[in-house]
Amino acid sequence: LFCRNKHKPFLLFLSFLHSHTPLLTTKKFLGTSRHGLYGDNVEEMDWMVGQVLDALDKEGLQNTTLVYFASDHGGWLERQEGERQLGGWNGIYRGGKAMGGWEGGIRVPGIFRWPGMLPAGSVINEPTSLMDIFPTVVHLAGGALPQDRVIDGWDLMPLLQGTVEHSEHELLFHYCGIHLHAVRWHQKDSGAIWKAHYVTPVFQPFGAGACYDRGFCPCFGEGVTYHDPPLLFDLSQDPSEAKPLSADTEPL
C-alpha cells in the first residue's frame, strides 16, 4: 500500500487482534515477556507496529505521514484463567473495559509519530477523544467538515504542535451503551478536570475493583448504583478517582 500510494495521500486503518482475548500469539513470541501470555501478545503487537513504521521509513514517508496508535477501551479486568490475568491492566486508573465512567475503562494510550511536524518526546496531559480522528484526518487531507450536523471531534494538530495549550473539549460525555454514566468538564482557565458520576457499576465481590461475579459490568438495573447527587472527582488532583469530593469538605 505504501509503495503504491507514496506519491499521493493515503489512509491506512489497521486493527490488531492483539491484546484482546483470545490472545493469539505466534510461537516466535511465546515466553518472551515477563508478564505471561498477555505480555507475549503485547510484545508481538509491538513488533508488528515496528514493521509498519519500518515500511514507512523504507519508502521515505516518515516525514509526511502521521501515525496515531490508540485503543478502543481499557483492559478487561474480569478476563482471567485461574491466576492468569488475560485482559490487561490499567495501572492507577479505576475500573476497566465496559465501564462507561471509570477512567480505567475509557482512558487509553494515545501515541503520535510525525518526524519534523510533531516535537519528539513531548507529553500532553489534555482530554482528547477518538472522535477527534475524523476532523484531524479531514484537515490533513485538505477536506471540509460537513456543515449540516454537529461534529463532536476537534482537529488535534494545534494541540499536538503546541500552538494551543488546552484541548477544545470542554465537556465529554461517557456512556455505557445508551446510558449516560459520567460527564467530564475541562475547566480551561485553570486546567482542572472535573468528573461527575451519575451511575457506577456494583463491583463484586465486595471490595473488588471489577464485576468478577458476572465477568462483565452491566450498564443499568440492579447491577449499578445511581448517585444523586453524583459522585464528583477532581481528576487533575485525583486521577485514580479514589476520593469523591463532598460539599462538607469542599464547599466551592
H/E element sequence: HEEEHEHHEEEE
The end-to-end distance, rounded to whole angstroms, is 56 Å
- Provide the helix percentage: 10-25%
Q: Profile the largest sheet.
A: 4 strands, antiparallel
Query: Please, how many helices?
Result: 4
- Which architecture of the domain at 2-170 would the CATH scheme give at its second level? 3-Layer(aba) Sandwich
CATH superfamily of the domain at 2-170: Alkaline Phosphatase, subunit A
CATH topology-level name of the domain at 2-170: Alkaline Phosphatase, subunit A
Share of β-strand residues:
15-25%
**Number of E-state strands:** 8
Mean pLDDT: 92
Rg: 20 Å
- Provide the structure class: alpha+beta
Cofactor: Ca(2+)
InterPro entries: Alkaline_phosphatase_core_sf (IPR017850), Sulfatase (IPR050738), Sulfatase_N (IPR000917)
Pfam families: Sulfatase, Sulfatase_C
Family: Belongs to the sulfatase family.
Short description:
The protein has four helices and eight strands; from the N terminus they run H-E-E-E-H-E-H-H-E-E-E-E. It is an alpha+beta fold. The chain has a four-stranded antiparallel sheet, with no helix packed on it. The protein has a two-stranded antiparallel sheet with strand order 1-4. Strands 2-3 form a two-stranded antiparallel ribbon.
